[in-house]
């Protein structure tokens, strides 16, 4: 292992036998143990580890774990693996905790020996590194998951809307401010989508198609509210990403292909919504092409806008 | 008394390790209630957070953390909340530690800070600056160094107070006791926590305009706001009367006496409004 030792946070009560066993990890990792929930949450927020080892000694510790799992899902903490330590005799009563088994990355019985512990942590770290489909920039699901989500949506009995999001004049921004500034805008757009959508509808899907293209699938009755929320937040944050002079002037100045200076409007966000009813579309590709038509209309409007396709 | 340069190293070491600061219990309670209430809007929550230096720095620190990909850009609570979302904010507030004992004069420092925040905002709007809210944040945080002194260097903080009472200039006293002044201390911590460069510079230079590198108008604004709030006698800080004033600030801002009068006119009702809030909190504290 080169460079710094990977960081592992643990939540293990001092008196438990496991707190002795865990020390074996010190050889290869930086370990930090917490016994207070406040301190653990604070550490996870401000300085997330590669792996969190959580000792679920009894049911009273479930609530904190749930908070952590929610944080992992909603706050771009997919890169943090959560490993659960449980008592063999508690397994039966824990089996019904669906949320647990859906979101943790691994579990181990407290009776496990040191070698097993070492190996599980090692495997866990590698697995974290190859969470393949998620977009590395935003941590959001990528194209394979998007395809699955779309297929599920097409067959759903619920009234859902598929929305495509992208930025206007993003190329000009990238040219003027550089790629790393562009990446920051994309990450922030992802955050805006996550906070707006998950707050209204925690089970909705958000995917990152690539570049400045995103997709989300939400219950149709929330479409207007969510689109307005996204645009409002984007406009509020925009000044943080623009230089004073561009902001004051109200447009970018760029060179076009012929080398002439021209005015380009500032960054804005466009959202094209396509409501889907069961049987309306057969293939995800059909939704995408319908969305492309709507998108070209939205993008012809100045500033940030959304438009929902009302055709049957 | 120990050697200031040694002390300086020691202070910096301690600041690097500082994980967080305690908040005022009534504010945390109010925040929890506000967040739980589905009718409350983001701007209501932001407005309350903006009355507490500690929660404000916490929110900004998280929003500016490199890990989440928005480094050093987010300088208002409102913007930070857009990125963090209510759920994360809830957790963040859960992690707040609370003041156990609080003294009346300590509340004074906190009142002074929200007064300066209000005044900075009024002046920024008068100058038609686009970043009035950002400057209000700088106003709120300008004495963060003193908050830290009070909470983590209590003994030394009292020594400074004694020196000031015996007639010494505040910054000089701080330099003797800490090897640095509160402006540097606050900005050091803000840099540690990845807050935007603009906020850091304004706070760093708010008593000494020669420290300005880039933000002349903004820093002068805070410098003058600090003076005006002292002169008005709102809240308390370590200064017994008013802090030393660089006249240059007036030139940079192109303000004359009429402008100052106009600012006072706008400031007064705002302070009155804030007073209601702070008095209520004080009652809850005692």
Task: Briefly characterize the structure.
Chain A has 312 residues and is α/β, with parallel strands linked by helices. Chain A has helices at 18-21, 37-46, 62-74, 91-94, 98-103, 114-129, 143-155, 170-177, 179-200, 223-237, 244-249, 284-300, and strands at 7-11, 30-34, 51-56, 81-86, 106-109, 160-168, 205-210, 213-219, 251-255, 261-265, 268-276, 305-308. In chain A, a hairpin with a 2-residue loop joins strand 7 (205-210) and strand 8 (213-219).
Describe the structure.
With 312 residues, chain A is of the alpha/beta class. Chain A is built from 12 helices and 12 strands. In chain A, the strands form 3 sheets. Chain A has a 5-stranded parallel sheet, sandwiched between helices. A 5-stranded mixed sheet of chain A has the order 7-8-6-11-12, with helices on both faces. In chain A, strands 9-10 form a two-stranded antiparallel sheet. In chain A, helix 8 (170-177) crosses helix 9 and helix 9 packs antiparallel against helix 10 (223-237). By secondary structure, chain B is mainly alpha-helical. In chain B, helix 3 packs across helix 5 (77-94). The two termini of chain B are 36 Å apart. The relative contact order of chain B is 0.14. The interface between A and B is medium-sized, with 35 and 29 residues.
Secondary structure blueprint with pairings:
The complex is a heterodimer of chains A (312) and B (286).
Chain A: E1 7-11, H1 18-21, E2 30-34, H2 37-46, E3 51-56, H3 62-74, E4 81-86, H4 91-94, H5 98-103, E5 106-109, H6 114-129, H7 143-155, E6 160-168, H8 170-177, H9 179-200, E7 205-210, E8 213-219, H10 223-237, H11 244-249, E9 251-255, E10 261-265, E11 268-276, H12 284-300, E12 305-308
Parallel strand pairs in A: 1-2, 1-3, 3-4, 4-5, 11-12
Antiparallel strand pairs in A: 6-8, 6-11, 7-8, 9-10
Helix pairs in contact in A: 8-9, 9-10
Chain B: H1 4-17, H2 25-36, H3 42-49, H4 53-63, H5 77-94, H6 104-126, H7 132-141, H8 144-152, H9 154-165, H10 170-178, H11 182-192, H12 197-204, H13 216-232, H14 248-253, H15 257-285
Helix pairs in contact in B: 1-10, 2-3, 3-5, 4-5, 6-7, 6-13, 6-15, 7-12, 8-9, 8-11, 9-10, 11-12
């Amino acid at each position: 292992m080169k460079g710094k030792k990977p960081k592992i946070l643990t939540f293990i009560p001092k008196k438990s036998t496991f707190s002795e066993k865990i020390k074996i990890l010190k050889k290869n990792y930086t370990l930090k143990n917490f016994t207070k929930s406040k301190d653990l949450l604070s550490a996870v927020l401000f300085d997330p580890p590669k792996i969190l080892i959580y000792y679920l000694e009894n049911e009273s510790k479930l609530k904190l774990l749930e908070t952590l799992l929610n944080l992992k899902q909603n706050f771009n903490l997919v890169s943090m693996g959560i490993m659960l330590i449980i008592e063999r005799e508690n397994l039966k009563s824990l089996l019904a905790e669906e949320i647990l088994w859906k979101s943790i990355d691994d579990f181990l019985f407290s009776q496990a020996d040191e070698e097993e512990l070492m190996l599980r942590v090692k495997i866990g770290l590698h697995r974290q590194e190859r969470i393949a489909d998620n977009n590395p920039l935003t941590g959001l699901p990528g194209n394979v998951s998007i395809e699955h989500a779309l297929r599920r949506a097409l067959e759903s009995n619920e009234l859902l809307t598929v929305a495509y999001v992208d930025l206007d004049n993003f190329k000009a921004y990238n040219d003027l401010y550089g790629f790393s500034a562009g990446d920051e805008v994309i990450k922030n757009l992802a955050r805006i989508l996550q906070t707006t959508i998950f707050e209204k509808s925690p089970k909705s899907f958000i995917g990152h198609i690539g570049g400045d293209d995103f997709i989300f699938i939400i219950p149709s009755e929330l479409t207007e509210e969510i689109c307005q929320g996204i645009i409002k937040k984007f406009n509020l944050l925009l000044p943080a990403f623009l230089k004073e002079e561009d902001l004051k002037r109200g447009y970018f100045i760029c060179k076009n292909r012929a080398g002439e200076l021209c005015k380009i409007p500032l960054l804005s966000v466009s959202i094209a919504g396509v409501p889907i009813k069961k049987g309306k579309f057969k293939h995800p590709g059909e939704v995408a092409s319908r969305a492309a038509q709507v998108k070209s209309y939205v993008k012809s409007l100045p500033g940030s806008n959304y438009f929902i396709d009302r055709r049957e | 008394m120990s050697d200031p340069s040694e002390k300086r190293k020691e202070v910096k070491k301690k600041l690097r390790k500082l994980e967080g600061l305690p908040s005022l219990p009534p504010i945390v309670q109010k925040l929890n209630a506000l967040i739980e209430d589905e009718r409350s809007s983001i701007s209501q929550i932001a407005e309350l957070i903006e009355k507490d230096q500690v929660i404000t720095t916490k929110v900004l620190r998280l929003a500016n953390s490199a890990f989440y990909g928005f480094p050093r850009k987010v300088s208002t609570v409102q913007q930070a909340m857009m990125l963090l979302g209510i759920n994360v904010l809830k957790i963040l507030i859960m992690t707040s530690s609370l003041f156990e004992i609080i003294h009346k004069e300590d509340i004074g420092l906190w009142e002074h800070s929200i007064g300066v925040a209000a005044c900075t905002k009024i002046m920024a709007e008068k100058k038609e600056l686009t970043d009035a809210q950002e400057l209000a944040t700088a106003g709120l945080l300008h004495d963060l160094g003193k908050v830290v002194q009070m909470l983590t260097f209590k003994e030394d903080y009292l020594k400074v107070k004694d020196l000031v009472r015996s007639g010494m200039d505040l910054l000089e006293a701080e330099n003797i006791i800490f090897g640095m002044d509160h402006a540097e201390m606050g900005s050091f911590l803000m840099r540690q926590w990845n807050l935007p460069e603009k906020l850091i510079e304004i706070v760093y230079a708010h008593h000494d305009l020669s420290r300005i590198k880039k933000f002349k108008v903004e820093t002068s604004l805070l410098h003058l706001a600090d003076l005006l709030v002292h002169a008005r006698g709102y809240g308390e800080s370590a200064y017994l009367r008013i802090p030393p004033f660089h006249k240059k600030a007036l030139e940079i801002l192109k303000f004359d006496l009429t402008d100052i009068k106009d600012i006072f006119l706008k400031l007064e009702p705002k302070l009155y409004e804030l007073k209601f809030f702070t008095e209520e909190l004080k009652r809850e504290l005692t």
